[in-house]
Amino acid sequence: MTLSVFPRLYDLGTTKAMLMVNGRKVLGKKMKQLLATTALVLLPLSAVAADLPKRAPAPAPAFTNAPTFDAFGSLAVGYSGWDDRGRTADGIDVEARATYYSALSGAFGFQVDGVFGRPSYDFGTLTVANNTGSAAGHVFWRDSTAGLFGVIAQGNAKSSDISSDRHYFLGLEAQYFIGNVTLYGQVAYQNLSAGSLNENAGGFALAGQVRYFATPNLMLALKGGYSALNFDGSASGYDHNAWTFGAKAEYRLAASPISLFAEADYRRGLFRSFRDETDQRFMVGAKWNFGSQTLFQRDRSGASLDPFRSLAPPTIRVGGGGGSV
Known about the structure:
This protein folds into 2 domains: 3-51, no CATH class; 69-324, Autotransporter beta-domain (Lipocalin, Beta Barrel). Helix content is 9%, strand content 58%. The chain has 2 helices and 19 strands. It has helices at 29-51, 295-301; strands spanning 3-5, 19-21, 24-26, 69-84, 87-103, 108-117, 120-122, 127-129, 131-143, 147-159, 164-178, 181-194, 199-215, 218-231, 240-252, 258-271, 276-290, 316-317, 323-324. A 12-stranded antiparallel β-barrel has the order 4-5-6-9-10-11-12-13-14-15-16-17. The protein starts with a strand and ends with a strand.
């Protein structure tokens, strides 16, 4: 006869230890009762659990079949404030935008943007109102599960009573998709023709965004950018570096083509030969959407790209100590 004693699993007071006699398990009476009771409780529960519907993990926001075209028109109004060499001004900013996207062969697509703005600045003794317009074109390759890579070409025009400028961009842009987050970056060569200086400036521009989709129709974003412009010849004192950061939120109304948005931006620029200048902008607006079913679908398969925002000062003139108005 072979006899072995297993370690006691728990102490039930009078419960006997488990024995192995001639290879046969012998359980104490109370332990048998405990196991029988546990089985009676667990068996019905396991049967009920088997009949319950299985719940899959909550999916990331999804979209239906990618649209062959996507478009929107928007109108925004807000406040602009400008501080130039200690002189402050504020005013009303109005901006309208129209954007159209179309799929090309395979994973390729193109997008065009048109933007018109009219920011105004009241210095008390002087009011500066700029008429601004820009046109941008994008050609790109996109995988809606991975990201996007493409090129951008853009031209801006700005005119006021005291200056007329032309601003051009040519560069690359890319997006990377991580679940409900989109990382978006742009880099470009830029050229500015400042009419009041009769000189050109060249340099580079950077822009970036982080977009988060809390729901398919609620987008929150942080954005930033940097610009460096170097003027030719005698205007080198007007060399200008600037950086900006901001935030944006957009919500599309349920079962509606309309979305509402709000955004805020801060920009700081520094001329080579004198003090810096800053401006702030707060905008609210509405957008009429075509094509895409949700904001998330647009981001991954529609008109998801943005034109560059010029970080040059609102206007530049010669005189008055040299610098912007």
